Amino acid sequence: MNRRDSYSGAVCESQMSLFSGWFGEKIATFTMWLTLDSKKYKRVHDVILPSKNGTAQIDHILVSVYGIFIIETKNVKGWIFGSEKQAKWTQVLYGHKYTFQNPIRQTFRQKKVLAEFLDIDEHLIHTIVYFVGDCEFKTRLPPNVLQYGLESYVKRFRQHVFSYAETIRIYDKLERTAKSKSLSKSDHLKSLHERHNSTKACPRCGGVLLIRTARKGSNAGLEFLGCSNYPKCRFTRRVS
Hints:
By secondary structure, the chain is α/β, with parallel strands linked by helices.
């Protein structure tokens, strides 16, 4: 394959990936529109939020008197292997293995940024990872990782934690932010690069990165960067 063919293939693959993500978000949007009462569950889609530790892009947010729901969509096919604590999950498709970022970790940070942005307690925010592709979970995953049943999962939460007036205030603030486009996709990508290359702030939760020494295992005696919020946050990075 010559350089032009290689480049064309890479562009095509990137375009397909973008289309897959867009299509998955449209399915989730349609599901929410079809099954959840818009008077009870106010919806905000594709919002980029600022924080003291970079930005966070959230696919879908539902605002209700029962709490706020973050919905991270994944349009993935094949067998899915993963666990709550793994940094990467594995997709097996037609005999080939691919890895992708643990989406639970994505929502962990999204939840923190959203709570900071709205100035509310984190326990008022619920996170959901919603797979819309033709996939099969091959390992046990937490109950908030779904392939179907989005409506029934959301409706499990029946305790009123906000007044109706508070939901309108929250929804209006998020809707204004989404429509303002004050932060672009390029701003978010730049923020991602800076956050994941920082040696001072944890890219997951914003905690301070500290130099620690491994006490056991094959890396015993070696230094690494660890989050100050351990064990709640288990982010680590090698010391370059």
